[in-house]
From TrEMBL:
Record keywords, A-Z: Pyridoxal phosphate
Pfam family of the protein (one): Ala_racemase_N
Originating species: Azotobacter chroococcum
Name of the featured protein: Pyridoxal phosphate homeostasis protein
GO MF annotations in UniProt: pyridoxal phosphate binding
């Protein structure tokens, strides 16, 4: 099993090679380390390798890690589905939110974002594969949602996020990511972010314009889904 420093180096090499193969600057693709269910010491190891951005899905687990790692200059991203009763803590303790798919949630985040903090960076999640089990707004509903969210104070709408239906077919992978890119470009808004691509498909995502790739397994190994604190 690779150590975390070895894994970080391998993932960064994959990102660099995928960007170069697509004629992109590797600096334009950022690595978001998905650290859900992983202990704080794993994040410290990744931090020692230069990793600064970490994504969490479970609020209580994330808040506990934030307290334990308060001595480190980390940027925290909330990447899981958001319930209404969790919006205040998310608005207060995170710099990015990647999975908003309802105006009500965006409105609550806007109202509850402390005014002494910078605007909360926000991505809208789109269900590009039309899976009933997946969160995300329908593509047909995106333009109306995006326009409304873009007007909210204390938020900065940065772009779109998706988790396409898993497939090992690179052509199908690229098609789903291309769909998200086309949706972003078609909104006519000043957006700079595509949060897409994970451990198994980051190359396809980068080829289609990903600016954040969300990587967990390839960095930290298989996740422990025992009893995460939510």
């Amino acid at each position: 099993m690779s150590t975390i420093p070895e894994s970080v180096a391998k993932v960064r090499a994959r990102i660099r090679e995928a960007a170069q193969a697509s004629g992109r600057d590797p600096q334009d693709v950022q690595l978001l380390a998905v650290s859900k269910t992983k202990p704080a010491n794993d994040l410290r190891e990744a931090f020692a390798c230069g990793q600064r951005d970490f994504g969490e899905n479970y609020l209580q687990e994330a808040l506990a890690k934030q307290a334990e790692l308060a001595d480190l200059a980390l940027t925290w991203h909330f990447i899981g589905p958001i319930q209404s009763n969790k919006t205040r803590a998310i608005a207060e303790h995170f710099a990015w939110v990647h999975a908003v798919d309802r105006l009500k949630i965006a409105q609550r985040l806007s109202e509850q974002r402390p005014t002494d903090l910078p605007p909360l960076n926000l991505c809208l999640q789109v269900n590009v594969s039309g899976e009933a089990s997946k969160s995300g707004c329908a593509p047909a509903e995106l333009a109306e949602l995006a326009r409304a969210v873009a007007e909210l104070p204390n938020l900065r709408l940065r772009g779109l996020m998706a988790i396409p239906e898993p497939t090992d077919d690179p052509t199908a992978q690229r098609a789903a990511f291309a769909r998200l890119r086309e949706l972003k470009d078609g909104l006519g808004l000043d957006l700079d972010t595509l949060s897409m691509g994970m451990s198994h498909d980051l190359e396809a995502a980068i080829a289609e314009g990903a600016t954040w790739v969300r990587i967990g397994t390839a960095l930290f190994g298989a996740r422990d889904y025992g009893q995460p604190s939510r």
